[in-house]
């Protein structure tokens, strides 16, 4: 079983996201994360979908996606040849004043942004690869994570990968 | 550019696609469409249940190989066609379903007769449209027909809110359309076809597996040429039944759960298969793992998503099956490749075929399925269109009713929809009024859509319903006898209703045939009749369909009649 990042260019119109997610459900495939946004051409949206499966399953998902009339292009991104990031907002509990500084130091080390510093909580924004986010989460878990919101992976191949 | 209502533009667009008849049933949300239908030259066939409208359109589409059209209103009208759409999708049949929808402003407010048919139908349509503006309709219809009929055919839904039907707009009817995410025409890769030929020639025990794709693309002549040039025996899937004449010396018939004994046996012994237009369904191959063991697979299909889905392939040829096979035939002729028919494998095939012909036991009952269906074949002209319902009779038809003229046999093979065969036969008759059309039926299945007798009689679409009546849901009964230690439940239909009287009640002809001779005479009478005929044949309720490959077991474990 492997993690796969799929970059799917679709028609930017109502119902397409429903069709894509419904396809995964109907074919018994799993969506690990999905992020969607309009592209430089407003007629298209790009979906970045991460899924877990063996090679055969991922190939089959790609074929089924490609078969959809509203999809323009389906690509599997090579992790090493792509930039992929996820944005996470995390509200961390502050129990005593000294913890504030500790959390902010950790946030600095991870190039996080700090938002909304309160007496009893701090909100951190981290944009990184999923493993780096997991590492940060592990470090601050001890303080108590109050709430978390993740965007899902967003990815593009590096320059020169597609152009060739 | 011409100003007209959405409903009017729908009729014009349908006429431009060559539509001459639609099957449907009106209701509140599609009345503007019906009002324009009233003014148009398109013939309307009023059904008694929307499901049957969809099956009729499906039958029409499979026979004519262009989309059949059905109309239904919103809400229950739309949900009633869902089974018909799913059936067409499972069997790759071209069909256009046009549903009325509540007015745009009412959508999402749980209005009277509102159903989210776009959402409901999503996994079972090839595509669905819901025009928001009447001006979209001409292009939507053009795209719908294009999508439905090309590549791997399938059903397309057009759901039109009532206000979009009523409102007027300047209409532009496009001659050409482009859909950037849809590429149905793929040129077959010549090198792959060359590899396929090499693989077939180097195989010791090659076999051809012809699927529904051969029938959909009409590749009968090409298939036969390849089989004859290379002297390769031909098995089919059930959906591919009749893609190759079943009286041909190289024909072994369908494989699968109720495949011919010789077909299953030779399929298992083969070392290389050319699968043309088949999706390797579980009902055909038994178990995926066992099927591909020791077998080289050449897979030809128009749908790239089928390659590798159920079976690992050695050579894949993506493209229209007819085009691919035609290239193969050309190559064989150019290179003067021919195989002599005296190689050991073909001898083995002939012996196996002979063996089962002589030794496969047929029950003693005077109305045993094999006897009844062989009599039917004897009296029914070869060009007749045959549909089936779903159940034991369907599998007996697979076993004992030989299709001689390719492309004359149609069944709900993928979804297995009981009630499909009769309305589909009416659709087939509408597509080909000049040939006899017969539905091989079981009473349980016929019972589900028998009210289409009214349509057959009143719309002058006479078909023959050949009811093999075992007074029970026979296939379920067989499984309960076989797998549930005869704990029989939910299968007894108790000889109710009387199908001769049912036929007569609708103004059709009803005949009871109680011997094989009477069966033959009844069919002959029916062939001369101007109205639909229901032939009720009381068969043995205890007869099992054999051979049988139990679900989830490989073809080699086929159970033979003892």
CATH architecture of the largest domain in chain B: 3-Layer(aba) Sandwich
Q: Indicate the structural class of chain B.
A: alpha/beta
> Domains counted in the coordinates of chain B: how many?
3
* Radius of gyration of chain A over all CA atoms, rounded: 19 Å
Relative helix content of chain B: 25-40%
Q: Class of the largest domain in chain A in CATH?
A: Alpha Beta
Low-pLDDT parts of chain A are: none
- Termini gap of chain B: 72 Å
Question: Main sheet of chain A?
Answer: 5 strands, antiparallel
Rough outline of chain B: globular
Query: What is the helical fraction of chain A, as a range of percent?
Result: 25-40%
Structural class of chain A: alpha+beta
- Which homologous superfamily in CATH is the superfamily of the largest domain in chain A? ACT domain
Q: At the first level of CATH, what is the class of the largest domain in chain B?
A: Alpha Beta
Q: Spell the H/E element sequence of chain A.
A: EHEEHEEHEEHEE
> The CATH topology of the largest domain in chain B is what?
Rossmann fold
CA-CA gap between termini of chain A: 29 Å
Describe the structure.
The complex is a heterodimer of chains A (164) and B (562). Chain A has helices at residues 16-26, 55-67, 97-109, 130-140, and strands at residues 2-11, 33-38, 44-53, 71-77, 82-93, 113-117, 121-128, 145-150, 154-157. Chain A has 164 residues and is an alpha+beta fold. Chain A folds into 2 domains: 2-77, Alpha-Beta Plaits; 83-155, Alpha-Beta Plaits (2-Layer Sandwich), CATH 3.30.70. In chain A, the strands form 2 sheets. In chain A, strands 5, 6, 7, 8 and 9 form a 5-stranded antiparallel sheet that branches. The radius of gyration of chain A is 19 Å and the shape is elongated. Chain A starts with a strand and ends in a 7-residue tail after the last strand. The N and C termini of chain B lie far apart (72 Å). A 6-stranded parallel sheet of chain B has the order 3-2-4-5-7-6, with helices on both faces. By secondary structure, chain B is α/β, with parallel strands linked by helices. Chains A and B meet through α1 and α2 of A and loops of B.
């Amino acid at each position: 079983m492997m993690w796969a990042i799929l970059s799917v260019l679709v028609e930017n119109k109502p119902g397409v996201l429903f069709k894509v997610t419904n396809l995964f459900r109907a074919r018994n495939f799993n969506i690990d994360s999905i992020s969607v946004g309009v592209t430089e051409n407003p007629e298209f949206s790009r979906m970045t979908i991460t899924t877990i499966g063996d090679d055969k399953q991922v190939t089959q998902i790609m074929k089924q996606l490609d078969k959809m009339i509203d999809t323009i292009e389906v690509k599997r991104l090579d992790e090493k040849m792509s930039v992929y990031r996820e944005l996470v907002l995390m509200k961390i509990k502050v129990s005593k004043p000294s913890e504030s500084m500790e959390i902010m130091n950790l946030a600095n080390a991870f190039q996080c942004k700090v938002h909304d510093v309160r007496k009893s909580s701090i909100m951190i924004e981290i944009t990184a690869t999923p493993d780096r986010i997991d590492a940060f989460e592990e470090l601050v878990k001890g303080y108590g994570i109050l709430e978390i919101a993740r965007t899902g992976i967003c990815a593009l191949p590096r320059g020169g990968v597609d152009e060739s | 550019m011409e100003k007209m209502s959405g409903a009017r533009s729908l009729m014009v667009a349908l006429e431009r696609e060559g539509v001459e008849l639609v099957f449907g049933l009106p209701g509140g949300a599609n009345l503007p469409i019906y009002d324009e239908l009233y003014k148009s030259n398109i013939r309307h066939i009023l059904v008694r249940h929307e499901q049957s409208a969809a099956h009729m359109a499906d039958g029409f589409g499979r026979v004519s190989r262009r989309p059949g059209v059905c109309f239904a209103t919103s809400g229950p009208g739309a949900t009633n066609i869902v089974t018909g759409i799913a059936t067409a999708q499972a069997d790759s049949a071209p069909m256009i379903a046009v549903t009325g929808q509540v007015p745009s402003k009412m959508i999402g407010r749980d209005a009277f007769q509102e159903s989210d048919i776009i959402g409901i139908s999503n996994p079972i349509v090839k595509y669905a449209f819901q025009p928001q503006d009447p001006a979209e309709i001409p292009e939507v219809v053009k795209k719908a027909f294009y999508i439905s009929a090309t590549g791997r055919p399938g059903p397309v839904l057009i759901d039109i809110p009532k206000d979009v039907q009523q409102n007027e707009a300047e209409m532009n009817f496009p001659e050409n359309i482009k859909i950037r995410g849809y590429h149905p025409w793929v040129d077959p890769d010549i090198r792959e076809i060359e590899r396929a030929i090499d693989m077939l020639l180097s195989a010791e025990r090659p076999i051809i597996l012809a699927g529904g794709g051969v029938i959909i693309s009409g590749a009968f002549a090409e298939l036969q040429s390849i089989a004859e040039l290379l002297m390769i025996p031909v098995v089919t899937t059930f959906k591919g039944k009749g893609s190759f004449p079943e009286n041909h010396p190289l024909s072994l018939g369908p494989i699968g759960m109720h495949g011919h004994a010789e077909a299953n046996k030779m399929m298992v012994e083969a070392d290389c298969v050319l699968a043309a237009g088949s999706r390797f369904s579980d009902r055909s191959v038994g178990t995926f793992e066992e099927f591909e063991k020791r077998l080289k697979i050449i897979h030809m299909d128009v749908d790239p998503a089928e390659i590798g889905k159920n079976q690992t392939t050695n050579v894949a040829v993506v493209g229209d099956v007819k085009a691919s096979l035609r290239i193969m035939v050309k190559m064989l002729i150019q290179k003067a490749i021919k195989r002599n028919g005296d190689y050991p494998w073909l001898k083995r095939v002939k012996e196996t075929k002979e063996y089962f012909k002589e030794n496969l036991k047929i029950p003693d009952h005077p109305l045993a399925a094999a006897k009844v269906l062989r009599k039917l074949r004897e009296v029914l002209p070869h060009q007749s269109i045959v549909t089936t319902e779903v159940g034991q009779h369907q599998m007996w038809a697979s076993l004992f009713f030989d299709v001689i003229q390719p492309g004359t046999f149609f069944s709900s093979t993928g979804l297995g929809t009981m009630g499909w065969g009769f309305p589909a036969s009416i659709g087939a008759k509408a597509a080909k009024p000049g040939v006899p059309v017969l539905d091989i039926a079981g009473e349980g299945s016929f019972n589900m859509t028998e009210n289409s007798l009214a349509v057959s009689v009143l719309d002058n679409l006479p078909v023959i319903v050949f009811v093999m009546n075992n007074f029970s849901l026979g296939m379920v009964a067989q499984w309960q006898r076989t797998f549930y230690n005869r704990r029989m439940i939910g299968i007894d239909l108790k000889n109710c209703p009387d199908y001769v009287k049912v036929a007569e009640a609708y103004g059709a002809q009803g005949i009871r045939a109680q011997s094989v001779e009477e069966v033959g005479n009844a069919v002959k009478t029916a062939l001369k009749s101007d109205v639909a005929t229901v032939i009720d044949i009381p068969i043995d309720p205890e007869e099992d369909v054999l051979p049988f490959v139990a679900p989830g077991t490989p073809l080699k474990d086929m159970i033979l009649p003892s």
